[in-house]
Amino acid sequence: xxxxxxxxxxxxxxxxxxxxxxxxxxxxxxxxxxxxxxxxxxxxxxxxxxxxxxxxxxxxxxxxxxxxxxxxxxxxxxxxxxxxxxxxxxxxxxxxxxxxxxxxxxxxxxxxxxxxxxxxxxxxxxxxxxxxxxxxxxxxxxxxxxxxxx
Length: 150
Prior knowledge:
globular; mainly alpha
C-alpha cells in the first residue's frame, strides 16, 4: 500500500500543481514561482515572497505533503467507509470537496495567508480541478489496490 500511496501522491501532486500553475497564469499572469511562494507564505508569511529558491522549493514540498495527507487519509478510510467503495467518481468528488474545505477553511485560516472571501466561481473551478487532478487518481488507485487484496 505504501508504494501506491507514494505513486498516487506523485501523480496527483504533479497534476494539481500543473493545473494551479496554468490557472494562475491564465487568470492573473502569475508565474509558477509566485504560486509556490504563496503556498510557502502560509507558514513563513511575507518573507516567502523574497529571497532565493528556498521558499518556492518549500512551497512545492508543502503542496506534496497536502496531497500525501489526502492520499493516506483516503486509503485509510477506504476499507472503513462503505460509501467510498461504491463509486470512484463520487469518492473523487468527496476527496476534492474535503480537500477544498480543509485547505480554504482550516489551513489558510490558521496560516499567515490573509483569507480572501469565498467566491462561488473560483470555488467551483478549484473543486473541479481537485476532483480531476487529486480525487480521481486517489480514488481509482485505492480501488485498484484494494481489489487486488480481496
